[in-house]
Automatic annotation (TrEMBL):
It holds the Pfam family Bac_luciferase. GO terms for molecular function: oxidoreductase activity, acting on paired donors, with incorporation or reduction of molecular oxygen. One of its GO terms (cellular component) is cytosol. InterPro entries: Bact_Lucif_Oxidored (IPR050766), Lucif-like_OxRdatse_MSMEG_4141 (IPR019922), Luciferase-like_dom (IPR011251), Luciferase-like_sf (IPR036661). PANTHER family: CONSERVED PROTEIN, LUCIFERASE-LIKE MONOOXYGENASE. This is Putative F420-dependent oxidoreductase. SUPFAM superfamilies: Bacterial luciferase-like. Residues 22-116 form the Luciferase-like domain. NCBIfam families: F420_MSMEG_4141 (TIGR03620). Signal peptide: none annotated.
Length: 280
């Protein structure tokens, strides 16, 4: 059995509602180690469904928003699902974005309080993962949870994060990518990144990584887009994922950007073959 605190290798990141039991089973058969569900409702019904359809996958929430779901009901849902599938549920939680949350205030204190309340409700630290970008929250993730789950970052951020949190903490990094079979790979990549360039926590983090205001303006420079959502053949995408593992991530989770309505499975299959996941 794969345990949450021993997640390794390559997983998949998909928005809540975009996976389904059949795709989850196919991804497991291809050798992916986990599925992370973006914008996850706190009732954990979707993770439970995907866990029931698979045998080994870890399913993570990426993330349950602290402003949207109170910790006590989330803890109750966690206990329901974890009792059925011990060691396979990663409860990813996070603070979200000030632009999207009217009540956004004192984010660090809110995170600490939320983690305190999850702990009081009996959710074990090793099954919690915390969305984190900056040093203060990265350190908190290492101290109070299994580890951080950074989003929209580069391998350089992964390297800095590992140096900061030390060797023992779990580090699960999201990476977008586009296969070159798309009609307009860079345009599709830009569409997948542009909305985040309006959110100041991501912008602030990108500026620390050596990008400029000019890179971020007008939907992102080619340099920025190519770093955040690399495009290429399956081998090139595999190399972009491996760069995070080489930089210190325990696991990198692939958000494969595809045309609306396109079946994503062939792309995941091609990348799995490039990574030799089924032989690993």
């Amino acid at each position: 059995m794969i345990m949450v605190n021993d997640v390794r290798g390559v997983g998949v990141w998909r928005r809540s509602g975009q996976t389904g039991p059949q795709l989850a089973k196919e991804l497991e058969n291809l050798g992916y180690r986990s599925i992370w569900l973006g914008v996850s409702p706190g009732d954990l019904a979707e993770p439970e469904e995907l866990l029931a359809a698979t045998d080994r996958l870890v399913v993570g929430t990426g993330i349950v928003n602290m402003w949207a779901d109170e910790p006590e009901p989330v803890a109750e849902a966690y206990h329901r699902v974890a009792a059925r599938f011990p060691g396979r549920l990663a409860l990813g939680v996070g603070i979200g974005h000030p632009e999207a949350t009217r009540e956004y205030r004192s984010p660090y204190a809110t995170i600490v309080d939320y983690l305190d309340r999850l702990a009081a409700a009996g959710v074990p630290q090793q099954d919690i993962v915390l969305a984190a970008l900056g040093p203060k929250v990265l350190k908190l993730a290492a101290e109070r949870t299994a580890g951080p789950h950074p989003y929209l970052v580069t391998p350089e951020h992964t390297r800095r994060s590992r140096d900061l949190i030390g060797p023992e903490s779990l580090l699960v990094t999201e990476q977008k990518a586009v296969l070159d079979t798309a009609r307009d790979p860079r345009g599709l990549a830009r569409d997948g990144v542009a909305m985040y360039l309006q959110l100041r926590n991501y912008v602030s983090n990108l500026l620390t990584l050596g990008f400029t205001e000019e890179d971020i303006a007008k939907g992102g420079s080619d340099r920025l887009i190519d770093a955040l959502a690399p495009q290429g053949d399956p081998a090139s995408v595999a190399a972009a994922l491996t760069a995070h593992l080489d930089a210190g991530a325990n696991q990198v989770v692939l958000q494969l950007l595809t045309e609306e309505g396109e079946d994503p499975l062939p792309g995941y299959r091609a990348i799995a073959e490039a990574l030799e996941l089924t032989s690993g």
